[in-house]
Amino acid sequence: MALALHGITARFGGLVALDDVSMRVEPGRIVGVIGPNGAGKTTLFNVVCGFVTPSSGSLTLDGAPLRPRPHRLTAHGIARTLQGVGLFDGLTVLENVMAGASHTARAGFVPALLGLPRSDRDERRLRELAMRCLTEVGAAEHAAAAPATLPYAVRKRVALARALAARPRLLLLDEPAGGLGAEEVEELGQLIRSLPRQSGGECAVVLVEHHMDLVMAVCDEIVVLDFGRVVAAGTPDEVRDNPAVAEAYLGADVSTVDAEAPA
Ligand SMILES: Nc1ncnc2c1ncn2[C@@H]1O[C@H](COP(=O)(O)OP(=O)(O)O)[C@@H](O)[C@H]1O
Ligand SMILES: [Mg+2]
To answer: Hey, whose CA ends up nearest to atom 9 of ligand 1?
Structure first.
């Protein structure tokens, strides 16, 4: 599914968190959004999810105007993972993932949780879907576990499975590698690369991440934000070689740093 941002500006009081940001995410593509702390990455996700209303600009989804509402996201075909983990501790791993898919069941998962009458067929279908998603992320063996008992890296995989259970056509990942070790980051990279293919090549992924190696390894395109502005965009190679990127991360260009270095 193609997502486009057209000249999005978002303010918090006097602070301009996003400044005239335009970008496109084509179906089946993995687009990275990088930039230093405070650059506006999470705000960009919040705009796409409807948590933050831009002061100007617009969004389109497959060319049609998108006015996102957080509670309607899955109906738009959009799913996100949160910075951190955000699983329900009172539910098993499998139930957490089922909750991600609940909009697809007619009777609904919430009535089921409350012990209200529901269709057994819906419930069985949900369970099967949730197990498939856990298998996709390599966490099927933990289906019956309580999330709190699992290592952090596994919980992050479960959170990803929950997002996949919504069968999204646009998946937003906010710092999925946060808190992971080097080997876990590499496995996560392979998993993210496989996501568009698993969904028939149609699912687009937007990856917000600090972890530069991961972004460079998995993304087809990268957008670099600094102080809410797009300072560079292109393939990983183009972005790596762009002086504006080093500048954004260092806060000054290299020659300035050299000039100010004590002799
Ligand atoms: N809800 C909010 N209220 C006020 N300021 C915010 C809010 N969310 C983010 N900001 C500010 O907007 C800027 C961008 O933040 P954020 O999008 O979280 O950056 P990033 O995710 O790139 O680290 C920061 O200066 C941050 O302090
Ligand atoms: Mg952030």
So the answer is: 43
